[in-house]
Design brief:
two-stranded antiparallel sheet, 43% helix, 16% strand, 444 residues, twelve-stranded mixed sheet, globular
């Protein structure tokens, strides 16, 4: 069996190319314009016309800027939609993403320290330890993680804790914080190796967290404890609500029972049978807070429950692989957008399970479903509220084809009442623990 490319095989490659009459034309087109521009299909833009039979009025699109807070923006956006409907706040009203960002960073630091202590007996070459140290903390997260933050700390309007340089451009704070966390990991592991007492370890960890708090306060500002909320509604009527706390603001202005909202995934790999519960080892932020739990369902169920929640007038948090077969400027996500297989005469097709198993795809971004076009009882395309500002898509909104949802959407969050009764019972069952590096543990 020949292992190396030799002169004979190279000549065969060259002959195969020369025998294709279109090869010089395509070479000129691709070298000049790039692969995607050459493979773009005009008909996709026509099919993805941004008109929908169900179209929720959700206000202006937000902008996460140069940060990885899409999961946080998407969750807070679903809540501000409800506030807008209940209280008539202006269409540009936002909840403070900086506030939840601060607490998420602090809690992730503590979560990291606890995982370091749990794995301190393992060598640094162990895969779990290496996994921890690769990224001690990051901007990304999951629905259950933002719920854990809100349940503990509440939320506030953006006017009370606005964006800062570091919340909008998080690279510097992440670099500084991860440097500190890795340095602290060295010290914590040494304490365990030296058989330090529990009290010595707890005292050391508290001192470390005190420094993390200071780092975050300088970067994001210190979170408010009490505040006044004032605004003019859509009819220009003035409102002021005094002496609120973040918890009382959430209770009054959102008021959701967050236990009713559950994460539903479509992970069609062989290791994850449908209609079962899953969790991921070492995935979370708040120690002793709400754990990350997923219900795995078929794609038919996945679409149906998302559609039901939209029909009820409520937007839907969802996670996907946004970079696949998408055009950021046009705001289109469609499997027919680019025809690389026809361009190169190469079969690029992989199943959804194969893409997950072989590292070709995973959840990279969270957004909000705010509409859907239903034709003959079936969804054909979905309206998506992104968090990349108004300069992309249609004033910041994207269009997603139903086929794209099938292939690249992995998670939706819905009120459990929209699930069939038998699946509501499954939610109560113990979850299978997946490895930390499982693709269903990826952070949006």
């Amino acid at each position: 069996m020949t292992k190396a490319i030799n002169a004979t095989t190279l000549a065969d490659f060259q002959k195969n190319l020369a025998n294709r009459p279109e090869h010089t034309i395509l070479e000129r087109a691709v070298t000049k314009n790039g692969i995607l521009a050459t493979a773009a299909d005009y008909h996709s833009a026509v099919a993805m016309n941004p008109v929908f039979s169900i179209d929720l009025d959700t206000g202006d699109v937000a902008n996460q800027k140069q940060s990885g807070r899409c999961w946080m923006f998407a969750a807070l956006n679903t809540m501000r939609h409800d506030i807008k409907n209940k209280f008539g706040v202006p269409k540009d009203f936002e909840l403070s993403q900086n506030y939840t960002f601060f607490w998420d960073k602090l809690e992730k630091a503590n979560y990291f320290y606890e995982n370091v202590l749990k794995t301190a007996q393992l060598p640094t070459s162990d895969r779990k330890v290496a996994w921890l140290m690769t990224t001690p903390q990051q901007d990304g997260g999951q629905w259950d993680m933002i719920v854990a933050i809100i349940e503990k700390y509440g939320i506030v309007p953006q006017s009370v804790m606005p964006e800062t340089y570091n919340s909008s451009k998080s690279v510097e704070v992440n670099s500084s914080l991860n440097l500190k966390l890795r340095k602290d990991a060295v010290k914590l592991r040494k304490l365990v190796a030296d058989q330090a007492t529990d009290n010595e370890i707890a005292t050391t960890k508290k001192a470390m967290l005190t420094e993390v708090y200071r780092l975050l306060a300088y970067s994001f500002g210190e979170p408010p404890i009490k505040f006044d909320f004032e605004y003019r509604d859509a009819d220009k009527k003035y409102h002021i609500d005094r002496d609120l706390t973040p918890q009382s603001f959430f209770k009054k202005y959102v008021g959701w029972d967050l236990d009713q909202y559950v994460s539903v995934i479509n992970g069609p790999t062989a290791d994850k049978p449908y209609n079962k519960m899953y969790t991921v080892e070492m995935l979370g932020n708040v120690v002793d807070g709400r754990p990350v739990r997923h219900l795995n369902v078929t794609m038919d169920t996945f679409r149906t429950i998302a559609l039901k929640q939209l029909e009820a007038g409520e937007s839907v948090w969802f996670g996907c692989d946004v970079g696949k077969s998408s055009d950021r400027q046009k705001g289109i996500m469609d499997t027919d957008l680019y025809k690389q297989d026809e361009l190169f005469d190469i079969d690029f097709n992989m199943t959804k399970a194969e893409r997950l198993d072989y590292g070709q795809s995973l959840m990279t971004h969270a957004m909000v479903l705010t509409g859907v076009d239903v034709v003959d009882g079936q969804p054909t395309k979905w309206k998506v509220e992104n968090s990349w500002g108004k300069k992309v898509g249609t004033d910041g909104f994207f269009v997603m084809s139903n086929d794209w949802m099938n292939e690249y959407c992995y998670q939706v969050v819905v009120n459990k009442k929209f699930l069939p009764e038998k699946l509501q019972e499954v939610l109560k069952k113990e979850a299978k623990v997946l490895a930390p590096w499982d693709p269903m543990g990826s952070l949006a």
